[in-house]
Specification:
Elements lengths: L4 H5 L8 E2 L2 E2 L1 E2 L10 H14 L9 H21 L6 E4 L2 H16 L5 E5 L8 H10 L2 E5 L9 H10 L2 E7 L11 H10 L3 E5 L11 H4 L3 E5 L10 E5 L1 H6 L10 E5 L2 E4 L13 H14 L4 H19 L5 E3 L9 E6 L4 H10 L2 E2 L1 E3 L4 H7 L4 E5 L6 H18 L1
Parallel strand pairs: 3-15, 5-6, 5-7, 7-8, 8-9
Antiparallel strand pairs: 1-2, 4-10, 9-10, 11-12, 13-14, 14-17, 16-17
Helix pairs in contact: 2-10, 3-10, 4-5, 11-14, 12-14
Length: about 400
């Protein structure tokens, strides 16, 4: 069933505003998505009618807040096919990956061990492991990226077979290249060798229906703000076995069982990893965002987004000096590109004047930029509410910019 894009756009109040006195074309969805009114209203309603801390009060307001908070966790658990006890609320994928590295990584990695990252990783899936490596003394091996933007699978299989790798942490979908990595296949192979698996799902959740059980990984982290939810909230999904092995990441109120000056015992997951007052409003907003996207068939969403990418990529390919970075088959609707003689920042400024919002820079992927041989790229990324008209406007605006700037 085809998506009704006009109807979908009406769900997002911000899309009605202008940008530099021009109709807004928001094409920076890989950085953050816009929020439907139901998410905004859910947050407002919580603060207006149910504002209370959770896990603490027995009065009606506290019960209302607790029920809303639990319902959000339940909605997420149902979406990703896990139990509610496997859903840990964090500030975003970045905090989630730090939690996994510092808490789980410190349990399974020892001096002299080896783990794998890839060249296409976001800084959030590089730096936490580097910090832990300096502390513990394990080595980090880097999977090469092939010329089309795909992972070197033969390299991974060879490393797995050597018997030295203890853990692999990979992005499910590159925020720069749009590459959709075969994580289920890699996780399955890793398990055969007893290798632990961590998946950065920040970019994949808006474009894929993720079944945690079918993937079979030990951890999966994502951010709410990229899946039409609020900023400042995210989720770590963990296997029960892995979560029960992990010490707390932070300490304080509400993550304990018993506290005395003789020692402290800790609560069971997920509460063990949610110290202090949580972002209740953010969790409620994320739960509502999950409920919102559940109404759409993900295959319809992907088909629509890919069509917009094809319009943009095909149109820009006619411009002399255009290079798209990441050309794997079945990639996501992320168009990262350079045009010879045009600095990406100059291009973005020109597009901004036309009402078109794109991203430029290294996209928190400086190692990948070095591999690509560029300092920065321009990036247009599409979402469910973008239109063919916006894709065509984008192409035409880039053409005009090239004509002026070159």
């Amino acid at each position: 069933m085809a998506l009704n894009i006009d109807e979908i756009r009406s769900d997002f109040p911000i899309l009605q505003r202008e940008n530099r006195s021009k109709p807004l074309a928001f094409l920076d969805n890989a950085a953050t998505s816009q929020k439907p009114a139901c998410v905004v209203n859910a947050i407002s309603d919580y603060y207006t009618n149910s504002n209370s801390n959770v896990h603490r009060g027995v009065y009606e307001l506290a019960e209302d807040a607790e029920n809303l908070y639990h319902q959000a966790r339940k909605s997420i658990a149902l979406r990703f096919n896990v139990s509610v006890n496997q859903v840990i609320f964090v500030r975003g994928a970045t905090e989630g990956l730090n939690l996994i590295a510092q808490s789980y990584g410190s349990v399974v990695l020892r001096k002299g061990d080896c783990m794998i990252l890839s060249e296409m990783e976001h800084h959030a899936n590089i730096v936490p492991w580097q910090i832990l490596s300096e502390k513990i003394g394990f080595s980090i091996r880097i999977c090469p990226t092939l010329s089309d933007g795909s992972l070197d699978r033969e390299w991974i299989s060879h490393e797995f077979s050597e018997g030295k790798v203890k853990l692999i942490s990979l992005t499910a979908l590159s925020n720069t290249l749009g590459t959709v990595n075969p994580i289920k296949e890699i996780v399955s192979e890793a398990r055969q060798h007893g290798i632990k698996t961590v998946i950065d799902g920040a970019q994949s959740v808006p474009h894929q229906k993720i079944d945690f059980q079918k993937i079979g990984c030990d951890f999966f982290a994502f951010s709410g703000h990229k899946i039409y939810g609020p900023m400042g909230i995210g989720v770590v999904l963990g296997s029960s076995d892995a979560l029960n092995q992990m010490p707390p990441y932070q300490a304080g109120g509400d993550m304990i069982d018993q506290v005395s000056f003789d020692g402290t015992t800790f609560a069971a997951p997920p509460q063990r990893f949610e110290a202090g007052t949580p972002n209740v409003a953010g969790a409620i907003g994320l739960g509502k965002a999950i409920e919102y996207i559940n109404q759409f068939d993900i295959s319809d969403v992907v088909k629509h987004e890919n069509k917009l990418h094809q319009i943009a990529s095909s149109g820009l390919s006619k411009i002399e000096g255009f290079v798209e970075h990441g050309t794997t088959p079945n990639k996501a609707a992320v168009l990262s590109f350079t045009i010879e003689g045009i600095h990406p920042h100059d291009l973005a400024s020109f597009l901004d004047a036309q009402g078109i919002a794109i991203r430029t820079g290294h996209h928190c992927c400086q190692p990948l930029m070095k591999i690509l041989g560029v300092e920065a790229t321009a990036r247009a990324s599409f979402a469910i509410y973008n239109t063919e008209d916006e894709a065509n406007r984008f192409v035409e605006a880039v053409r005009k910019a090239v004509g002026i700037l070159r």
